Amino acid sequence: MTSVLFLLLAAPSFAYEPLPPVVDPAAMDKSADPCADFFQYSCGSWVKDNPVPADQHAWYRFSELDEHTRGVLRAILAEAAAEKPADENARKIGDFYASCMDEAGIDAKGIGPIKGELDRVDALTDKKQLAGEIARLQQLGDWGAFSFGASQDYTDATQMLAVADQGGWSLPDRDYYLQDDYKEDRAAFVHHVETMFSLAGEPLNVATSEAATVLKVETALATAAMGRVERREPKNVHHKMKLAEFAALAPSLVWKDYLAAAGTPPFADLDVSDPDFFKGLDAALKSFSLEDWKIYLKWCVLHGSASMLPKAFVDEDFAFFGKRLNGQQELKSRWKRCVEMTDEGLGEALGRVYVESEFGAAAKGRTLAMVRAIEGVMREDVGRLDWMGAATKEKALVKLAAVMNKIGYPDKWRDYSRLPIAPGDAMGNYQRAEAFEFARQIRKIGKAADRGEWDMTPPTDNAYYDPQMNSINFPAGILQLPNFDLKADTAAILGAIGATIGHELTHGFDDEGRHYDAAGNLADWWTDADAKAFDARAQGFIDEYSGFATVKDVKLNGKLTLGENIADNGGLILAYRALEDALRKDAGPVIDGYDQRRRFFISYGQSWCENETEASLRKAAKVNPHANGKWRVNGVVANMPEFARAFSCKEGAPMAPLKRNRVW
Question: How many domains are contained in the chain?
Answer without folding.
Answer: 2
